[in-house]
Amino acid sequence: MNAPDTPLFVQTHDFLLWLIRHTQRFPKNLRHTYTQKLETLSLEFHESILMANSYRGRDRSDWLQRADGKLVCLRALLRIAYDLQLLAGTQVKHAAQLVDELGRLLGAWRKGTDRKTPAPSA
Question: Is residue 3 over pLDDT 90?
Answer without folding.
Answer: no
